[in-house]
Design goal:
By secondary structure, this protein is α+β, with helices and mostly antiparallel strands. The protein contains 24 helices and 25 strands. The longest helix has 28 residues.
Length: 664
């Protein structure tokens, strides 16, 4: 029955015995209890479906069906043995059949469950495939289309991407250490505006920026902290400072190792979740149960390619998905992730992070996937960092290679990156020079830095730019003041400033006749009066503001209530409250009581064994309650796998509040 060579089938049976999934009975090998329930309805397992007719009768029925009916039967078999057809009538005869679905039902080749679902019986599937469990051999892995590519080209291209990764992470976290972006409410991720701003600053696309942010978080370099105003914000951790002291190859290994083990799904950022909301970077729920396994399986396929071979250009992830489906056919699809998406994201992210290039793993990428140390191999591929730049007359600086980390971060303060590539170009502008001065640099310090960092003379235009910016820097100053005092009597203001009791008022003289205070006006007035002054409030137009106390009024009464009205009103309110309480008790009594964990598990196991549907009441990850009619398929690792219409979903057992059968 198995469409495979005898040796391959023998090895597979031995593996099933070693994993205790089959056992030797008096009648031969048998699957252990629960295996058939777990496999029910899986792709390629339509042979597990029950059927009452013998094989000869099935073959005769298949020979008598129309071409349209046979094509539909083959489509159902290819789709996993189940299909939906709400129009097909159960219990019709061959003469009454209208359409291929009813013809197949009438001949017993499809079984209608009564709720629109059609099931392909096991014997029918076997006869349709010529007595085989599958149409194609199951012991022959689908091939991966490859093309030739020199290994040294792959290594150099990937090493360049690895260098870009580390440099972009430095720029990202340096920027966020100075101005941490605020988190969405409750630490629910990064705003769309901050993601866009980050992408523009790093000169990358928004998906790449989301990947960098997620990788920094997974590596422990980024976390949620509190800014100066007490708001939750995303900022570098103390580990970032230690990470900066490591060699570049070691820094790359740290972050890519974290990516390899992370269940996060950066590829979802910008897409819509099942509720129609946009996924944000750093959102708590941005993770997948199959992300790590699929990522490792995909990279292992690339690592298994012969030396000098890479995935053929233009094939995309389709060939890899087909191969993984052959190796792991049981992985269910969820609403937020699919095997196709995970494979596509893995291939793209691996090249962005410098693990792979041109569809193949770099030599050090193979070591990373195998769990070995990639640092020595990568270090030999990275160019030596340079300690200088070349200043140009057009207010730019060219880095002739990767700059030393300290020089790159310092230069990024006083200049802006204009273009990446083999030689990074920095541009000096008034805004960039002013940014350095905002951080405390003086014009003298900027001139000294430029002269020390450049192998070429400092252009006169750049010197003028720094001096002109310094000349206007700080001409307008901004400070904090809650109130001001103005008086034509300069001596009175001088006496007030010298008074010992006025120290707590935060007074500062801006002009001979003007003093500002950090104390609010409402508190400042009575305290000035305590010092013997008689201040008045000045209006915006310079006139004296006369403060007049607002008259207070009570709400007018509309007449005296008649005797006994108050008591009657209270009695009516008490009766209404009692009626609502009684109605609430009746409603609560009519609801099904939440099932205890033991009874919940018992009902689910009974439904799995019987292949029946149940109604579950659950709470999703956003705290929204709901009910769903599902067909339980199996329980594993604290999760329930169940079929919901044409989709297979996973429900956490801890979120299931109650379970009840569909029929009383």
């Amino acid at each position: 029955m198995l469409n495979a060579e005898v040796d391959a089938a023998t090895r597979a049976l031995s593996h099933l015995e070693d994993t205790c999934l089959v056992w030797h009975s008096l009648d031969g090998l048998r699957a252990v209890t629960g295996v058939s329930a777990v496999l029910r309805g899986s792709p390629g397992t339509s042979g597990l479906q029950p059927f009452a007719a013998d094989q000869e009768e099935v073959v005769r029925s298949l020979a008598a069906v129309s071409a349209e009916a046979r094509a539909m039967l083959e489509a159902v078999d290819a789709g996993g043995g189940q299909a939906s057809s709400s129009r097909a009538r159960p219990g019709v005869s061959v003469a009454e059949a209208a359409g291929p679905a009813e013809e197949l039902i009438a001949r017993g080749l499809l079984v209608s469950s009564g709720d629109g679902m059609l099931t392909l019986p096991g014997e029918v599937g076997l006869a349709l495939r010529g007595g085989r469990t599958t149409v194609t051999p199951v012991d022959v892995p689908p091939p991966l289309p490859t093309s030739s590519r020199a290994s040294n080209l792959v290594d150099r291209a990937a090493a360049g991407a690895a260098f870009e990764l580390v440099r972009n992470l430095e720029l990202l976290l340096d920027a966020w250490s100075a101005a941490p972006p605020r988190s969405l409410r409750g630490g629910a991720g990064l705003t769309v505006r901050d993601l866009k701003t980050t992408a523009e600053r790093l000169h990358v696309t928004e998906p790449t920026a989301a990947l960098l942010i997620e990788v920094a978080w997974a590596a422990g370099l980024l976390a949620l902290g509190t800014d100066e105003e007490g708001d939750p914000s995303w900022m570098p951790t103390e580990l970032f400072d230690q990470w900066l002291q490591q060699p570049l190859a070691a820094r790359w290994s740290h972050v890519t190792g974290a990516w390899l083990a992370s269940p996060r799904l950066p590829g979802l950022v910008g897409q819509r979740d099942p509720a129609g909301k946009t996924w944000n970077a750093l959102a708590p729920d941005l993770a997948g149960t199959s992300a790590v396994a699929t990522r490792r399986q995909t990279l292992r396929l690339l690592a298994a390619l012969p030396d000098g071979e890479v995935l053929a250009a233009g094939t995309g992830p389709a060939a890899v998905v087909t191969r993984l489906a052959w190796e792991r056919p049981r992985r269910p699809r969820t609403r937020t992730e699919s095997r196709e998406s995970l494979v596509a994201w893995t291939l793209t992210e691996a090249e962005t992070l410098g693990v792979a290039a041109f569809g193949g793993l770099a030599a050090y990428g193979r070591l990373l996937v195998a769990g070995e140390d990639p640092v020595p191999t990568l270090a030999g591929l990275l160019p030596e960092p340079v300690d200088h730049v070349l200043l140009q007359g057009d207010l730019t600086a060219v880095a002739p290679g990767p700059l030393e980390p300290a020089l790159a971060r310092t230069l990024a303060v006083v200049a802006t990156v204009e273009s990446h590539g083999g030689a990074t170009v920095y541009r000096f502008t008034k805004e960039s020079v002013r940014r350095a001065m905002d951080r405390g640099w003086t014009a003298t310090e900027i001139h000294a830095f430029l002269a020390a960092a450049s192998r070429t003379p400092v252009p006169q235009a750049l010197t003028y730019l720094v001096d002109d910016t310094a000349r206007t820097f700080g001409t307008v100053r901004v400070g904090f003041a809650a109130a001001y005092l103005r008086s034509d009597d300069e001596a009175a203001l001088a006496e007030l400033l010298a008074h010992p009791a006025a120290e707590s008022l935060g007074l500062r003289r801006l002009a001979p006749t003007v003093v500002v205070s950090t104390v609010a006006l409402d508190s400042l007035l009575p305290r000035l009066r305590e010092l013997g002054l008689a201040p008045v409030v000045e209006a915006p137009d310079g006139s004296v503001h006369v403060a007049r106390t607002d008259a207070k009024r009570a709400k007018a009464r509309h007449g005296q209530r008649p005797a006994g009205a108050q008591e009657a009103h209270l009695a009516a309110r008490a009766s209404a409250v009692a009626a609502r309480v009684k109605a609430g008790d009746e409603t609560a009594a009519s609801r099904p009581a939440p099932a205890e964990p033991a009874s919940t598990m018992a009902i689910l196991h009974e439904a799995i064994d019987a292949g029946e549907q149940v109604v579950i009441s659950y709470v999703d990850g956003r705290g929204v309650g709901g009910e769903a009619r599902v067909e339980p398929l199996g329980i594993d690792g604290g999760s329930l796998a169940a079929r919901v219409e044409d989709d297979v979903r996973s429900f956490a057992l801890s979120r299931i509040r109650s379970v009840r059968p569909t029929s009383p």
